[in-house]
Amino acid sequence: MALKIVKGSIDRMFDKNLQDLVRGIRNHKEDEAKYISTCIDEIKQELKQDNIAVKANAVCKLTYLQMLGYDVSWAAFNIVEVMSSSKFTFKRIGYLAASQCFHEGTDVIMLTTNQIRKDLSSPNQYDTGVALTGLSCFVTPDLARDLANDIMTLMSHTKPYIRKKAVLIMYKVFLKYPESLRPAFPRLKEKLEDPDPGVQSAAVNVICELARRNPKNYLSLAPLFFKLMTSSTNNWVLIKIIKLFGALTPLEPRLGKKLIEPLTNLIHSTSAMSLLYECVNTVIAVLISLSSGMPNHSASIQLCVQKLRILIEDSDQNLKYLGLLAMSKILKTHPKSVQSHKDLILQCLDDKDESIRLRALDLLYGMVSKKNLMEIVKKLMLHVDKAEGTTYRDELLTKIIDICSQSNYQYITNFEWYISILVELTRLEGTRHGHLIASQMLDVAIRVKAIRGFAVAQMATLLDNAHLLTGNTQRNGICEVLYAAAWICGEFSEHLEDPMQTLEAMLRPKVATLPGHIQAVYVQNAAKLFATVLQKHEGETDSQAAQETSQLLIDRLPLFVQSANLEVQERASCILQLVKYIQKLQQKNVEVAEEVTALFAGELNPVAPKAQKKVPIPEGLDLDAWINEPPSESESEDEKPKAVFAKEEPKHYRSRNTEVDEKELARRREVRKQEQANNPFYIKASPSSQKVYDAPGVEHIPVVQIDLSVPLKVPGMPMSDQYLKLEEERQQKEKAERKKKEKKKKREKRGKGRKADSGPESEEDITPAQHVDIVTEEMPENALPSDDDDKDPNDPHRALDIDLDNLLSGFSSRPLADSEKLPVRTHRPEVLKSPAEDRVSESVPPETKKKSSKEKKEKKKDKEKDRKRSKEEKKKKKKHKEVEEELLESQPEEPVQSEETKEAAAPPTSTSAEEVTVPSSAVETSSAAVPESEPDEPKDTEPEDTKSSKHKKKKQKKEKEEKEKKKKKRHHHHHHHGEAGGEDSVQNGTVEEEEPLPPMSNYSVLAENSFIKMMREDAEQVYDIQGNHQDESKVVVSIIFENKSDSFLKSMEFNVLDSLNSKLQRPEGAGPHDGLTVPFQLPPGVSNEARFVFSVQSIVMPQKLKGTLTFIVKSDESSTHEKLDFKLHFTCTSYLITTPCYSDAYAKLLESGDLKGSSLRLEGINMPFHHLLARICFHHHFSVVERIDSCASMYSRSIQGHHVCLLVKTSDQTVSIDAKCDEPSLLGNVLDELKQTFSKC
Amino acid sequence: MIKAILIFNNHGKPRLSKFYEHYTEDTEQQIIRETFHLVSKRDENVCNFLEGGLLIGGSENKLIYRHYATLYFVFCVDSSESELGILDLIQVFVETLDKCFENVCELDLIFHMDKVHNILAEMVMGGMVLETNMSEISTQAEAHSKMEKSEAGIAGAPARAVSAVKNMNLPEMPKNINIGDISIKVPNLSSFK
């Protein structure tokens, strides 16, 4: 045997191992790809062999190739094989490969569940460790669900090595399977105080990660963390805790106050920079949360700022960076304390490290005041000129705009200066932020009325020199500013000195090379300008000039009419026709100007950016619904060729444009000359320019001087520097004046004592240069102030927003509901019970169901809120809440318990409104089975809401159904039930060594023939809606249809002969004898589940309903109609609902004397007592109230509220059951059924 | 959370890549290239933090890296990690490698990627820091290799012999990233116990 192994390994040693592969790749530098492909072929051969060592070696090599970028997903199955090797060496290779290339889309991952479970429970701690490590990288929702319990168990493993890994991986499990958070949390919390520091650190790590996303749920842990913080010496843990506190303090200011002291101590005492830094950070967070009126904390701020200054001044760039980062946080709330370090920050702007410069830029934002804004921006403009990389330059640009525009242009005293800064910024070549500058121009021009005249003049110059901006057109984002320029000139054309010239500039042929949306604005605003010009001329009764203007438009507009851009084309042809008409009128000497101007009359008001979003949606409007059926996808393709054809035209014009450029050049030359002659910085567009243009002297200026490709300076532009000087002068003047005044004042005040004089330096005293009327933006009248629409709905952490507090603190708590426990496989008894769960279930207080339903509703409301966003007013919500609460109270005794995990949530409180709306949607949801069978969806009481979210809901439904189906296929029996039974059997009882429970199935064969087999779930889900729907109860029957033949089954119809008492729920409009179509077809060998709802009136008697299933069997040659008869048996048991009850309540119930008794004796029962109990729990929906040795009391209640109590005793194969119930016939039937259950075995 | 750990050399050749979120192989290579591009153009004496990896995670994430002789060690982390802490973790990682390989150099990483992965797995698990104590990490790593050796037993002997022979003609290994003699200023995050 040993010889064989040695021989095998000798064969093997000539295979390439990882080292050989790497060496080979290094030796084949020129034809690496080719070499690797031969290697992959070899690997494929090796993977085909049976020897696991060879396979492992191959997989190891694949892992390396994966790193080099080769897709190795084809070997996923082999990886699984290697993972399942019994040898640690190979197993590790397998898990490593899996962790590198498995992900949620890997299909073989579902094959690994059992292997991983086996490894997790392996006696060898390293096997377990490797499995945990691997799993942490590729855990999927399915794996998380199936393995959550195993991992929970490992959290109390004896070896700290395993414990810490298990604790850490829980975070990943929570992410993928949020339902596991509540059951696992108590144990996780326990681990915070684990004796091993590694485990402790892991637990801190996980909770910090959780709390970061949903801090409010972890506030209750603050005292514990506080204790840890003061006791722990592990810096890593300390940092995590301190970071966590940073996240918690905004929610609880009292916590912050407590923290300040220990944190300050730490700041003073620690030598570790990382810890110091985090402390400072958290102190800042605390101070922010306390910012309102806590003057005595100024010492802390000073301390922080001081420490940060030390960091920033440090030669270590890392510390400098972090110091600046933290500074920016202080800046938000305490700008004053940061402003005193302006020197330092400005110095950092010159740092050679870009990261640091960027951080410093962030800080500048808060450094500015009215006084120093111009100075700072000037400095930044210098940086803009110097900056090489476009990214940094773009960053500078956005920062300049940010700084200037912050809080509604608070710091700008001179808008002329700002406009000229913006104009200067347009000189930036290749910036991405043209649109940003454009929107600023628009914003300022619209909102600052006083500046319009100046802005229009500037924009007109920009338009005139548009060719400079569009040097190399399309790529250049800066031409976006022309959009703004054109619009401003058009809209405020009354301020234009020479509208005719601007009009001419806007209709130049070269405009046709601009992007379409800009051209469209050009055309539209040309029309506005036209109106202005007309009016002007008519005012001067210069009909000749007016007609010339019309002619100009008629000449130039056809260029745009042929544009490829639809918008341009449409506007142009519209306006062209208009102008033609005007021309006709003009020729008849009709005064038109007034009417034309009326076309563009009326002022446009600025609208807040979020205004549209805030308009409340009127009731009954569903924006998601299709108005018409969606068109088929193929249609859109037809339109493409058209666009391609039309696109060719602009090219044609471009060639023509170059000719016109000559004229342009001449004109620009002229402007330049003008500029030089007069003020070097700033020229008002003078009306005389037109004349100078005609002067002959212009020709002599050499053309060479103008370099088109380097448009460094736009002629005729004002320079912002000039304003800086002006501003300084002005301020000095003002200051002088003010001082004079103050002196006067002081003299006056001297007698009365001086105070409240903020001093001459105070910023508020600087008056703006011009009177500025900043118009505020408009919002819809009844807009909501809420801003909660920022959260990303796809964030996995949203699902983890689970209330955990109740789990922890004593009485008034919401314990884990049965449905929340982690799923356990019933036939894996070793993981069946975990102490934590037991403990939790023991402490279940009597008002469980009430609470849980309430909580569910809260959750529901949360969801609802999300969905509704800000659609509804708060008032309404309140009302809604009240209504719901009333409903809840009206039937406090009604249990809401059922078998399915989520289905437990079926709120009996969802009112009849829902019952009415849902059937109407039956057609829509037909693919998702009968609508009533899905009460797990949180439904709204308001019909319009239900509708609006239908889309989403439908999807969810389908998903959920699919999941359920999967689950069922895999286990083929209902494990939740088994679990409930198992749990119950040990509830309250001493936890003793008990034999594992045999698997129990809930499905029984309903009917079968050669074609089809119908399996019916014994335990129907029962929904009691008695309280609000007459006195009927609804029962849902799940039936699995399995195709046993090898033909296709379709058109299945399910029909039941109604009795007086029980009726099949049919969709509205269907007759009482119509069948229900099963919403699926069955290919050979496939099974699927459908649910049917029955309404039942009396539940005291068992009932039998006759039914038929008709279907079509379709084989290759023929299709035949077939039918299958069955009998649906509704046992009394099926009307019982597992309901927990507590011994005191139970005793009271028995004492009340309302119950009538009956008893039953069973002989020859040969099974352990806990099996017996489990069976009763499982099959008959009882729960154990108390168990003492071989005696147990059990409780259940019917859907109509009958109490059923059992006292089960056993001695020597004899079981006696004393039962009490307030409905004797029901009791009798239940006992009969009990008897039957046990006679079977 | 740590989103990814990358090791590549001065030429951008990947020596180890560990992504804690799933990306396709192509995206992974792109990320490595992009990261290399960002990191390699930085001077030696600038800060070790970098924002703006576009591919991986976006603005919330930071790249924290260290450069040792021929290798870059880059950790991509989100805001829940302490920057200086991660810098220290990189140091711990490199020192552990040094201990396990006895004067680690780039070639060790090239030829024993699996081993490096295993050491890393004892330190970071699923993107979360598992252990920061160097001796604890190396103890576990040693225990693992001991188990491996005991499993190989006699069967492994011939393979080991062959591989030893193969290794004899390895190119003369420049043992050049001996971190012992490279003095990196570590912010004194003193005791990670």
TrEMBL record, chain A:
Biased segments, Basic residues type: 740-753, 851-860, 965-977
Explain the purpose of this protein: Part of the AP-3 complex, an adaptor-related complex which is not clathrin-associated. The complex is associated with the Golgi region as well as more peripheral structures. It facilitates the budding of vesicles from the Golgi membrane and may be directly involved in trafficking to lysosomes. Involved in process of CD8+ T-cell and NK cell degranulation. In concert with the BLOC-1 complex, AP-3 is required to target cargos into vesicles assembled at cell bodies for delivery into neurites and nerve terminals.
Q: Return one Gene Ontology term, BP aspect.
A: neurotransmitter receptor transport, postsynaptic endosome to lysosome
Its taxonomic placement starts with:
Eukaryota, Metazoa, Chordata, Craniata, Vertebrata
Q: Which gene encodes it?
A: LOC113040020
Give the record's family classification.
Belongs to the adaptor complexes large subunit family.
Q: What is the protein's species of origin?
A: Carassius auratus
Q: Write out the biased-composition intervals (Basic and acidic residues).
A: 639-675, 724-739, 817-841, 861-873, 936-948
Location of region: Disordered: 622-683, 723-1003
Which InterPro entries does UniProt cross-reference here? AP3_complex_dsu, AP3D_dom_metazoa, ARM-like, ARM-type_fold, Clathrin/coatomer_adapt-like_N, Mu_AP3
Domain named AP-3 complex subunit delta is located at 660-805
Compartments annotated for it: namely:
Cytoplasm; Golgi apparatus membrane
Quote the protein name from its UniProt record: AP-3 complex subunit delta-1
Provide this UniProt record's keywords sorted from A to Z.
Answer: Acetylation, Coiled coil, Cytoplasm, Golgi apparatus, Membrane, Phosphoprotein, Protein transport, Repeat, Transport
The residue ranges flagged as biased composition, category Acidic residues, are: 775-792
Spell out the Polar residues composition-biased ranges.
908-928
GO cellular component term, pick one: AP-3 adaptor complex
Q: Which Pfam families match?
A: Adaptin_N (PF01602), AP3D1 (PF06375), Mu_AP3 (PF26171)
Give the primary localization class. Answer: cytoplasm
- Is Cell division there in the keyword field? no
TrEMBL record, chain B:
One CC-aspect GO term: Golgi apparatus
| Protein transport in keyword set | yes
Domain AP complex mu/sigma subunit as annotated: residue spans? 1-144
Q: Does the keyword Acetylation apply?
A: no
- Report the principal subcellular site: membrane
**Pfam families, alphabetized:** Clat_adaptor_s
Going by the UniProt record, its keywords in alphabetical order are: Cytoplasmic vesicle, Golgi apparatus, Membrane, Protein transport, Transport
Q: Where in the cell is it found?
A: Cytoplasmic vesicle membrane; Golgi apparatus
Q: What's a single GO BP term from this record?
A: intracellular protein transport
Topology relative to the membrane: Peripheral membrane protein
Cited function: Part of the AP-3 complex, an adaptor-related complex which is not clathrin-associated. The complex is associated with the Golgi region as well as more peripheral structures. It facilitates the budding of vesicles from the Golgi membrane and may be directly involved in trafficking to lysosomes. In concert with the BLOC-1 complex, AP-3 is required to target cargos into vesicles assembled at cell bodies for delivery into neurites and nerve terminals.
To which protein family does this belong?
Belongs to the adaptor complexes small subunit family.
**Protein name according to UniProt:** AP-3 complex subunit sigma-1-like
Tell me the organism.
Answer: Carassius auratus
Gene name for this UniProt entry: LOC113085676
